[in-house]
Design a protein that fits this description.
The strands form three sheets. The protein has a three-stranded antiparallel β-sheet with strand order 2-3-4. It has a two-stranded antiparallel ribbon with strand order 1-5. A two-stranded antiparallel ribbon has the order 6-7. The protein has four helices and seven strands, in the order E-E-E-E-H-H-E-E-E-H-H. The chain starts with a strand and ends in a 5-residue tail after the last helix. Helices cover about 45% and strands about 20% of the residues. It has about 160 residues and is an alpha+beta fold.
Length: about 160
């Protein structure tokens, strides 16, 4: 039997001593959850039986909470998520630390301020060398794949994990 795991695109913010705001960045939803619910959600790793997690909640409360999490898309039972014309596979989950958040902030900021200059430079180079381009070469394909891989790594390293 597969156990539920928390989805990777959640962030939390403490509201007060009793509640957190949990933000689902994929679906652009926000939820106000109790401390117990958030700590329970954090422990859902896909490997642990949710009913064996020590909490102050009864078995019935855990069942209701799991139904709520599933209905709102906060948990899943597989690393693969399928929807109409898309397939999402989580290869790894990043542990959220202060250093990781700072790194993600810096990467996101650099990507944001460098996008327009890099785009303009690329278009300028493309049009200035349009007559000399050889699109049949191995280098063009290799360069395109390498550029996409670098862009993917930079994009994904800017995500903040729960």
């Amino acid at each position: 039997m597969k156990y539920p795991q928390r989805v990777s695109w959640l962030a939390r913010r403490k509201i007060d001593d009793f509640f957190y705001e949990v933000i689902d960045y994929k679906n652009d939803n926000a939820f106000k959850l109790s401390n117990n619910a958030v700590h329970f959600l954090q422990k859902l790793d896909g490997k642990t039986d949710p009913f064996s997690i020590p909490t102050d909640m009864s078995e019935l409360e855990v069942k209701h909470l799991l139904r709520f999490f599933k209905r709102e898309g906060l948990i899943r039972y597989s690393r693969v998520e399928k929807s109409f014309l898309s397939l999402q596979i989580s290869l790894f989950n990043i542990k959220c630390t202060k250093t990781g958040r700072a790194f993600a902030f810096i990467i996101n900021f650099l990507l944001m301020i460098s996008f327009l200059p890099v785009f303009v430079f690329g278009v300028t180079v493309l049009f200035s060398n349009a007559a000399h381009l050889n699109l049949d070469g191995f280098g063009t394909i290799t360069g395109s794949i390498f550029g996409m891989i670098i862009g993917l790594i930079l994009h994904e390293s800017g995500l903040i994990s729960f």
